[in-house]
Design goal:
The chain is built from ten helices and twelve strands. With about 300 residues, it is α/β, with parallel strands linked by helices. The radius of gyration is 20 Å and the shape is globular. The structure holds zinc ion. Zinc ion binds near residues 180, 182, 185 and 187.
Length: about 300
């Protein structure tokens, strides 16, 4: 029987760890707040303590597979992470450090690393909205926009593990400068705070987050509706650029904005029709994510993919 794996999901606010069996069941799980510290070791202690606690539960003797999903950017050739929202970690050698912890407790580790957008796609492909598909693009739209692709049932990681960075595809070459340094990126129009900023520019005063904005749009407030519509046009253009490039027709949308329902999906699908005009992407389909913990389960899928 396939032994269970350890999955680690590292985000800016929390770190989740779990023991996951071959059928996707979580038998043990720990969630820690990500330590607010500039000391890399203080932050890592949350991961190390969790690993030590769970490796006992996994009842795996000898070799154990671990999948680590992390906020990006990451660098898979060196096994390091530099999460934008964890300033204390820059080029932090997460693969080496996780391996060390497991060796200390007498296990022989095999550690895989992927970005959180990639793990989201792996999780939704394995057990969520994309489980009937060989190829999907997973897309997380919240305060930022992340993504990842599973092509022919394997993660498309890219050279450094950052492939399908959909938020930073430019959809407006004459647009304003993005935080990344390029111009007119999808994220500048479609991420939650961008939707809110656009609505505020046009007089909306209903709140300061995307949840308030989508609630108002659902109630028919015209400025809120228009701001979301504009953002979804940018997202649609970026999605179709990705579909044209990868020849993938199923997208799974999650994240805070992605979970808002039809108020997002209806304008998004309408704009997709304007861009998805080539025959091979004309059937482009976007589905809501199904899993609450796609990133964690995706990290487990990554671990199972390691031999
Ligand atoms: Zn950008």
């Amino acid at each position: 029987m396939t032994p269970p794996v350890l999955a680690v999901d590292i985000g800016g606010t929390k770190i989740a760890l779990a023991v996951v069996t071959h059928d996707g069941s979580i038998t043990d799980q720990l969630v820690r707040r990500t330590p607010r510290s500039n000391d890399p070791e203080t932050i890592f202690s949350a991961v190390a303590d969790g690993l030590r606690a769970l490796v006992e539960q996994a009842r795996v003797v000898g070799r154990i597979r671990v999948g680590v999903g992390s906020a990006g950017p990451i660098d898979t050739p060196s096994g390091t992470v530099s999460p934008v929202n964890i300033p204390g970690w820059r080029a932090f050698p997460i693969v080496e450090r996780v391996s060390e912890v497991l060796v200390e407790v007498g296990r022989q580790p095999v550690v895989g690393l992927a970005g959180d957008g990639h793990c989201f796609a792996l999780g939704e492909h394995w057990l969520g909205a994309g489980r009937d598909c060989d190829s999907i693009v997973g897309l997380v739209v919240s305060t930022g926009i992340g993504g990842g692709a599973v092509l022919d049932n394997a993660l498309f990681a890219g050279r450094t593990g950052n492939a399908v960075h959909l938020g930073h595809i430019s959809v407006n070459a004459w647009g304003e400068r993005c935080v990344c340094g390029a111009y007119g990126c999808v994220e500048m129009y479609a991420r939650g705070p961008a939707l809110v900023a656009e609505a505020r520019r046009n007089g909306w005063a209903g709140g300061d987050d995307a949840q308030a904005l989508t609630a108002d749009a659902r109630a028919g407030e015209p400025v809120a509706v228009a701001a979301i519509d504009r953002g979804m046009r940018a997202l649609a253009a970026g999605m179709v650029a990705t579909a044209v490039e990868l020849d993938v027709s199923t997208f799974v949308l999650g994240g805070g904005v992605g979970q808002a329902g039809e108020v997002i999906f209806t304008p998004l699908r309408r704009h997709l029709r304007d861009f998805a005009v080539l025959d091979y992407v004309a059937d482009l389909e976007v589905r809501p994510a199904e899993l609450a913990n796609a990133g964690l389960l995706g990290a487990a899928a990554l671990a199972f993919s390691r031999s």
